[in-house]
User: What shape does this take?
Amino acid sequence: MQIYVDADACPVKDEVLRVAERHGIDAYMVSNSFMRLPDSPLIKRVVVGDKFDEADDWIAERCTADDIVVTGDIPLASRCLKAGATVIGHTGKPFTEASIGMALAMRELMTDLRAMGEVRGGNAAFSKQDRSRFLQAMETAVQGIKRRGA
Assistant: This one.
């Protein structure tokens, strides 16, 4: 079992490290540029090039059914689900085979509405409840994979 983090805009890197340390799991922090991360033998810093979606490609090519992927990127989540990985969004909401189709459709709709000027602004602010929900989702994911024998 390994954790792959789409780290460039990830607000829960510290929480990932807490879970990784609690369970002794390597966490790959994948980004397009160098970023300061806490010192831990479990953190594996991966800096890819700046080609579009290069970090996403790196993660999607390596994740397996025994791994957890942390991302807010819906197309990356879809690719990782197809590889069998457990995928968790930054707010703790898991992406599933049942929910990914709707998430992709909503993403496309919102992109179109923004392009037409119908929608402005971004997502809601990241909250303490989001962090708590994320930690719970990570713990649930780790325990689920352990029960399966990974």
Summary: The first strand starts at residue 2 and ends at 6. The chain has one domain: 2-148. The helical segments are 13-23, 54-62, 74-82, 97-115, 128-148. The first helix runs from residue 13 to 23.
